[in-house]
């Protein structure tokens, strides 16, 4: 759905943090060469955390904050219209993820046709790309967490949501301890369940575990609900009132408690990590605590500098990503598929757009690692340029 919207008073820091995470996700997902990536742009191999491991959980956190803002407009009423809207958006986000997965399979099959196959067989082979298509994924996780967290928000008294978060995280930790969940490989309970339900053909294998698999969705829901609770902390008044007096009241009444909550969550996560390791691939409970804590601290700092002190000049780049986040993320996936799937010949040698830009242009100038990063930056700028055209026309595309 495309909307032409008048820009209104709002907490700009939320858009900026959302934009930073989307730009970060696009950057780390699109190197010029997967063999040449600087260490901070890698995910942790197993236990531990790198800066790259923060971008997706930060986005899920801010999604929880935005769920509070969105549903507060309807006073959290559990009526037919609200439920239908939530379910419709959940299904739409999931189907967009399915479409991207299908498009990727279609393009690569187009580039690698069947041998000795007739025209109809070849067309069917390309079109019917579901046989080995991944069922889970980033958009699938966002859809499920958005849908469940939103339904919880309109059906459960908000003071009990923290109890749900604790129950989900504690229960998941027990499941990991009982099911070999902190060990990589196919004996991990997460891998066992995913292979039994999704099957190997429809999984992404990373240390034997699908990082967006079924069971690890449990703590992801808690993650989104923590973002919702932070949204409640920020916007306990009506949203219009909070924005109107942001300069006079937000600093003392909102920023300091938000910073304290972030510090407590972060400290608790690191303290508990001695018994429950921080691990993104299994979305461990301590990973939830640390990333939500850090996101709260970053949000508090951004609110202070952007909305209180009004340091806006540097924000526009990230605001472009923040006002059309899912559209630009999906667009980046589309470009990544096209740039990597379709090959062509130059000087008798077969290459792709990625190969042409990285191997023939950037790598000779910046070297292996520098060229790979330069490609990532150019790829981010390409998506930003398209997003900027929407931004300056105040066109916001909502999924």
From TrEMBL:
PANTHER family on file: LD22376P
Entry protein name: Heparan-alpha-glucosaminide N-acetyltransferase domain-containing protein
Pfam families in the cross-refs: DUF5009
Keywords: Membrane, Transmembrane, Transmembrane helix
Keyword Transmembrane helix listed: yes
Entry superkingdom: Bacteria
Domain DUF5009: 16-98
Organism: Prevotella sp. GTC17262
Keyword Membrane: yes
InterPro entries: DUF5009
Transmembrane segments: 12-34, 54-74, 86-104, 135-156, 163-183, 213-235, 255-274, 286-306, 326-346, 366-391
């Amino acid at each position: 759905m495309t909307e032409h919207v008048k820009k209104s008073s709002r907490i700009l820091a939320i858009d900026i943090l959302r934009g930073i995470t989307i730009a970060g996700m696009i950057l780390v997902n699109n190197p010029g060469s997967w063999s040449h990536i600087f260490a901070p742009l890698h995910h942790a191999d197993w236990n531990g955390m790198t800066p790259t491991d923060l971008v997706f959980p930060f986005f899920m956190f801010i999604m929880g904050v935005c769920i509070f803002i969105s549903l507060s407009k309807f006073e959290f009423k559990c009526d037919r219209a609200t439920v239908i809207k939530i379910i419709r958006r959940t299904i739409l986000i999931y189907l967009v993820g399915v479409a991207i997965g299908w498009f990727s399979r279609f393009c690569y099959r187009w580039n690698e046709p069947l041998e000795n196959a007739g025209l109809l067989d070849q067309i069917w082979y390309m079109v019917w790309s579901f046989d080995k298509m991944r069922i889970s994924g980033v958009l699938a996780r966002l859809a499920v967490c958005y849908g469940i967290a939103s339904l919880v928000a309109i059906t459960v008294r908000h003071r009990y949501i923290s109890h749900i978060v604790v129950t989900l995280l504690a229960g998941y930790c027990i499941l990991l301890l009982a099911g070999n969940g902190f060990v990589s490989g196919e004996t991990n309970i997460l891998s066992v369940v995913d292979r039994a339900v999704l099957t190997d053909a429809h999984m992404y294998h990373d240390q034997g575990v699908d990082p967006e698999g079924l069971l690890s969705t449990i703590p992801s829901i808690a993650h989104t609900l923590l973002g919702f609770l932070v949204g409640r902390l920020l916007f306990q008044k009506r949203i219009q009132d909070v924005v109107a007096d942001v300069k006079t009241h937000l600093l003392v009444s909102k920023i300091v408690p938000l910073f304290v909550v972030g510090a407590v969550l972060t400290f608790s996560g690191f303290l508990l990590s001695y018994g429950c390791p921080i691990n993104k691939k299994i979305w461990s409970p301590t990973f939830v605590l640390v990333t939500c804590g850090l996101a709260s601290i970053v949000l508090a700092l951004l609110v202070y500098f952007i909305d209180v002190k009004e340091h806006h000049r540097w924000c526009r780049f990230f605001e472009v990503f923040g006002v059309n986040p899912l559209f630009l993320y999906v667009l980046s996936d589309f470009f990544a598929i096209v740039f990597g799937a379709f090959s062509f010949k130059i000087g008798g040698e077969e290459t792709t757009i990625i190969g042409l830009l990285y191997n023939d242009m950037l790598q000779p100038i910046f070297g292996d690692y520098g060229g790979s990063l330069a490609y990532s930056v150019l790829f981010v700028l390409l998506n930003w340029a398209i997003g900027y055209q929407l931004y300056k026309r105040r066109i916001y595309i909502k999924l």
